[in-house]
Fold:
Amino acid sequence: IINGVYWGHIQTVVIYVFTVVAYAIFFYIRRIKKLLFYLITLGIITISLSLPQLYPTYLLYKNSHRGTLVDYTKGSLTPYIAPVTIYPFIFGRWKDYTARKIIKEYTYTETYIYLGISIIISLIFGIIFNKKDKLFYFSLFLIILFLILGFIRYLPFFTPYTPIISWFRYWQRVIFVSSLGVGIIAGAFIEKG
Structure:
């Protein structure tokens, strides 16, 4: 969370906070005192460590050139780009990058969200064979939710006025939270191996 503030990237901070709060609720929902302690402690640590950077982050935000309405569908993944999660150089490398022929807004750095073939295979086996505990379901929740948000352009139930969703763009960046869930499930399967 603090790194997101240091980067000056509010969308990252919101995604991190959502993930941490979802984790806390998922694991501590029956223990309210522990849940509140966890969230308050995390909030105090985050705020105190990011205080030196809050004002510069605000100045950076004020100088952002986004206009009055942010196009929340800008930077959404497409089914054509999805294979980069398994094979990262399917559209070439830096000098011969061809994905811009599919959608002009895609740059080399915005589309490479590499997970790997072996991890995807381990994920599949992990979903089939792993123990279905809270961590498994939380990881599956992260994978599904943030994979769906990565393809936000194709979701008809979001509008340009949907709170929080419509404030940001380049939703393919949220795939990194899906990769956290993928790593947990695949890692648990490999460890069990």
